[in-house]
Write a structure and sequence with these properties.
The chain is of the alpha/beta class. It is about 50% helix and about 15% strand. The chain folds into 2 domains: about 140 residues, HAD superfamily/HAD-like (Rossmann fold, 3-Layer(aba) Sandwich), CATH 3.40.50.1000; about 80 residues. Helix 1 packs across helix 4, helix 2 crosses helix 3 and helix 3 crosses helix 4. The mean pLDDT is about 95.
Amino acid sequence: MREHIVFDCYQTLIYKKNIVNIVQVFSRNILKKKIPSYYIKHGYNIIYDRYKFKRPRFETPQKRKEFYIGYNIELFNIIGITVSTYQALQLSKYLEDALWVCYPDTLIALKYFKKIEVPMGLLANWTKTLDKVLKDVNLTSYFDFVYSSYNLKLDKPNPKIFTKTLGNVISKFDKVYYVGNDYELDIAPAKKAGLIPVLIDRDNRYPDSVDCIRIKKLTDLGKIINL
């Protein structure tokens, strides 16, 4: 049986390191306030859910700047603090030091599937920076293809992003798995497109009764994909 794995990227394979700590340092240095990490994490979880269906294209550096000023102002409003436009811009500069890094299980899983010759691809909602980010974290060599919503002009959860880009893969393989961390963006549309969705749920955001394959770490994929 021929099987293929397609991965989401953000919070599936990689994440931004030390964001919470950076926001805490900014808060102490600029706002003169101490904010416990719990509130910052909670704020980021809420704002992620608010923005996950609003995919910015960032056609210009100015558009990117304006987006993150608004994003940072909203983040602090969620926490219960009002920040100025200038302070929001300062936070963006602080966050430039946050690096993209792989989860500990990412490379273990990718190396395993590459070794046993399971083909892999990547399909993610992302800006034009995706190729550079993957190169920075040394993941480029693992994928037969990399598709971003920026290049495709389609965003998840539109199932067409899967059928349009993966039609050839779906027709050639007996099983095509799509691994992602968000039910609405990843699991539901992948299922509609005829893929086998796999939910990576590291932080227990979903119940055990969720109606798809659910794993806690990427290395658990080896138990599902039996060659």
